[in-house]
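Hi everyone, sorry if this is the wrong subforum. Our group has a chain we'd like a structural model of before ordering constructs, and none of us has done structure prediction before. Sequence below.
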Amino acid sequence: MTSLLVIIVLVLLSVAIWQMTKIFDLTQVGNSRNNSQVANDNDNNIQGYLMFGFLAFLYIFTIYGLFKWGHLVLSNPASEHGADYDNLMWITFAVIFFVQAITQALLHYFAFQYRGKKDQKALYFADNDKLEFIWTIIPVIVLAGLILYGLYTWTNIMFVDEDEDVMVVELYAKQFSWEARYSGKDNVLGKANVRLIEGVNTMGVDLADPNAQDDISTTELHIPKGKKILFKLRSQDVLHSAFMPHFRAQMNCVPGMVTQFAFKPIKTTDEMRQDDDMIEKVATINKIRAKKSAELVANGEAPLEPYTFDYLLLCNKICGASHYNMQMKIVVDNPQDFQSWLKDKITIVKAASDEKAAKAAENAPIATPAPAAKKPDSTVVAQVTATTEVKK
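Answer:
Right subforum, don't worry. Here is the predicted structure as tokens:
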């Protein structure tokens, strides 16, 4: 409601200013005015100073944004490769800000310095090989450096040696939720196909595949600290994107194919909750939630619960109406806690077998008990015996 009122006020203010300009024009009737469509020196001076004003606005707003929203940037990555990822990002930012500061200053300075003046003619020259070489070779060198560093970082992140000790986990995307499948003791995922989805087998695992006999499915992702995880990614329906921001990891989930991404978590969930930056972020979020809760309580609604940090797996592709809510909780445990959590989970094969047995028992015909043997009527027997004795 407040936003609507602000919009209405701005619209009315714009209309009022427009009407005031019309009134001002009417008051100038009879005065000598220059109606020429050609800019004069005064017009060019005004435009030149406006260029400097816009340059100042760019710099002031950039500096203001860094101080105002800089704390919202994720810090202290929770994966081993996260430091390299962040270094590449900050180097890129530094280059962009440096180049932007110089080029924008030169652009606006030249626009002012060489503004139009009466009887002044522009100097034209066809080309300058030295100048063109300089402004071509410098971007080439800078971009080549960024690209090579990016390729080096990407290769280190994505490369998984065949002999490397990793734990294989599948992330299965579907509108609008996630499922995780653990490869079990053999560390090999069983085959899967969307056509095999039935009942509790929501990931379409081939239950006859020997490698699928120890696979485990969950709706909450637990991973051990210090262990490299190789994620195999699938999609049931449309294009999704597995995004784990605190681990600096993202990879598309493409229907009909398997993609992959690997990283090693270096901070448990509890350790990240004790991080100073995270404590500050959580406090900021809870201040906002407290303010919103006060409004809800005033309207007779239930207040919001305090926010507690958790790692999340998000979808970073607009995949449908509930895309915004497609997420799964990620818990990074100590290795001992992870094993304790995993050992209580039943396999997909066992869950499907139990479901099949339950359905069979439910659909089995109810046995009808045999009718009890009819007892002879003792009175009739007695009457027959008595009649026989009389005849004798």
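For your construct planning: The CA atoms of residues 186 and 223 lie 17 Å apart. Confidence is low (pLDDT under 50) at residues 384-392.
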